[in-house]
Amino acid sequence: MKLLVAEDDTASNLFLAQFLSQYGEVDRVVDGLETLEAYSLAMQENKPYDIIFLDIMMPKLDGVKALKAIRDYEAKKKVKGNQRVKVILTTALDETDYTKRAFDIGCEGCLGKPIDTQAINKLLLQLGVIQ
């Protein structure tokens, strides 16, 4: 499995990457623009990400806008539903507008911060990416 951690907080970025490394190859980025660059490069190389853990509040481009750009790209390239990258948002915000918009755009899940490893495993099980 190929995963991308998009998180501007260094401690959270390292924590997620280290925890997720048990499931596969993990790349790390620190802002929304780097997220889109990594995603685009992976698609061009025909080695797409299976899952992106995407922080909602990041510099340069927030997670909701990055998610929209990813879904727009997939629609343009006619990527089928089950072939789309699974996007799990992470947030410290209590504001539900961001998460509602993200689910409307097409994220598969949302995790509150601080991130709980049991919550990650539960969500990955629900998505059918681990057993």
Automatic annotation (TrEMBL):
Gene3D superfamilies: 3.40.50.2300. One of its GO terms (biological process) is phosphorelay signal transduction system. SMART domains: REC. The modification 4-aspartylphosphate is found at residue 55. One of its GO terms (molecular function) is DNA binding. Pfam families: Response_reg (PF00072). InterPro entries: 2C_system_His_kinase, CheY-like_superfamily, Sig_transdc_resp-reg_receiver. Keywords: DNA-binding, Phosphoprotein. Residues 2-128 form the Response regulatory domain. PROSITE patterns: RESPONSE_REGULATORY. PANTHER family: PEROXIDE STRESS-ACTIVATED HISTIDINE KINASE MAK1-RELATED, TWO-COMPONENT HISTIDINE KINASE. May play the central regulatory role in sporulation. It may be an element of the effector pathway responsible for the activation of sporulation genes in response to nutritional stress. Spo0A may act in concert with spo0H (a sigma factor) to control the expression of some genes that are critical to the sporulation process. This is Stage 0 sporulation protein A homolog. It comes from Desulfitobacterium dichloroeliminans (strain LMG P-21439 / DCA1).
